[in-house]
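Hi R.,

Here's the chain you asked about this morning:
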Amino acid sequence: MLDLLSIRSQQAESGEQALSILETAAFDAILMDYHMPGQDGLETVRRIRQKHGFEKIPVVLLTSSSADISAALTETLNIPFKLLKPIKFNEILACLSRLAFQEESTNIIHPTEKGQVINGTFKVLIAEDNSANMFLAKTFLSRIAPAAQILEAVNGKAALEICLSGLPDIIFMDVQMPLMNGYEATGHIRKFPGALKIPIIALTAGNMKGEKERCLLAGMDHFITKPFVENTILEILRKYILPGLASGDSSPAANNVALEAHTGIDFQKLNAVYLADASFLIEFLAITMQSLEGGISDLKRYYQAKDLQGINLAGHKMKGAAASAFMPEITALAQTLEHMASFEPQEIDHTLQLLQDGLNQIRPLINDYFLS
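And the predicted structure, written out as tokens:
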């Protein structure tokens, strides 16, 4: 996971080895397992704190149970974060990002020398209700702009609340979200003092006729389609955060990745778009599958309640997750539910069964692909 984030690291198999390594090199943070042979993680941290210059180095404690360690003890040892095992990619990314800002340091996340990096501190708000798409956006932003502060909103109302407490420098706004959609949220945000100059970038899972024009009329500055592509975000930041560095054509059509009529899941496109990072893909696909299973549960609940609007919203959310993972059949089935105009019990029930069958077929394909 650290390699995927281009974070340089050294490993120790015990507390004693960790103490020895700290004598020879400088570090921005320590990930410390609680259960280790010999002295445990807390004893190791206690000894680290006794060393000159290590009183305030950030420590993240890794533990199998939240009940293992008391809050008072971690506060005494100045341990700001705990992570439960097994460690998830998005959790460690969020944790290290918070540590970076807490310590007012931009040196925790080090992009690769080959990557193009935007230096400087600025605030980015991502309004997106799909966890897989949020994960993608945060990962790419952290690579491209390691000093950027990333704020998250799961719907338009949450985005408004964040903007009330302080305007970000740029907003990535999903157009279809629960409680308040992106169009409505943009209209409200534009009324805030100083908000007219904030770039708002529309995010959409499709390229429907007239959608670009509707986004612009709502007060948005730009329009990009999902799934996210790293170069797309780079060009957006160049254009709106660093105007003098804008280059090339960053129009939505140039950045959109079209889906072809494959069955199951298109690993070729996944590798092409997401740079063949196996660790990233494993975590991303796990999050995506979890999101899609949750979507089916939501659909079943809305089906029992005969809630057509809920079915439309759940279908939209599933469509976005499946499209980002290049699952064309799941995408098409979810889109059918998203645009269903009337409650048709037999059709909905049949589509639900096809969605479940599709996920059951994709899961072993993912396992086989990464085991082969």
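The longest strand covers residues 59-63.

Let me know if you need anything else.
M.
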